[in-house]
Design brief:
The mean pLDDT is about 95. This protein folds into two domains: about 70 residues, Signal recognition particle alu RNA binding heterodimer, srp9/1 (2-Layer Sandwich); about 80 residues, 2,3-Dihydroxybiphenyl 1,2-Dioxygenase, domain 1 (Roll). A four-stranded mixed beta sheet has the order 1-4-3-2, with helices on one face. It is globular, with a radius of gyration of 18 Å. The N and C termini lie far apart (about 60 Å). The chain is of the alpha/beta class. Helix 1 packs antiparallel against helix 2. It comes from Nocardia asteroides NBRC 15531.
């Protein structure tokens, strides 16, 4: 009897985002330089732009490619339609590197009450990245308590 096929490929998570980008080559360069991405696979169109590429960032895979308007796959133009959370060892370094490579700041790095330091950038391709480093090891319950107290103060 043959072994059943795993529904999720080895090394993947059950949800993987696909980013449509206006310049796939530039996006691969940006994600490699800023987030330390490694290209796992790539299928190029005749013009040399990726129709589909898979990148490993940390322990997670993202997919990207050029827009395919006829399939309603569009890159952001005047608004952000994708927000990605990226946990990393040093948020300040990654945010600075992103800005050096053409991202724009949406929120400066700051430490939040839940024990996470975060900053937000919009990459040159219109996607929002919340870059986060845990700086305090607290339980989910304690984080929820702190966030609730913080929200009550905001009212």
């Amino acid at each position: 009897m043959t072994e059943p096929v795993a529904p999720v490929p080895e090394g993947y998570h059950s949800i993987t985002c696909f980013l449509a980008v206006p310049d796939g080559n530039a996006a691969i360069d940006f994600y490699t330089e800023v987030f330390g991405a490694k290209v796992l696979s790539r299928a190029d169109r005749p013009d040399g732009q990726p129709a589909h590429a898979e990148l490993l960032i940390g322990d997670s895979t993202i997919q990207l490619g050029m827009p395919i308007p006829e399939n309603n796959v569009r890159a952001p133009e005047d608004w952000v339609h994708t927000s990605i959370v990226h946990y990393c060892p040093d948020v300040d370094t990654v945010i600075a590197r992103a800005i050096d490579h053409g991202a724009r700041t949406a929120e400066e790095p700051q430490t939040f009450v839940n024990g996470e330091r975060f900053g937000v950038v919009i990459d040159p391709f219109g996607h929002r990245w919340a870059v986060i480093t845990r700086v305090e090891d607290i339980s989910r319950e304690e984080a929820d308590r702190r966030i609730a107290a913080w929200m009550a103060e905001q009212s």
